[in-house]
Amino acid sequence: MRSWPECLKSEEMQQILIKPLITEKMSLDTERRNAYGFVVADGANKIEIKKAIEKEYGVTVTSVRTLRVDGKQRQRYTKTGMVKGRTNGYKKAIVSIGDGELIDFYENI
Question: What is the largest CA-CA distance in the chain?
Answer without folding.
Answer: 58
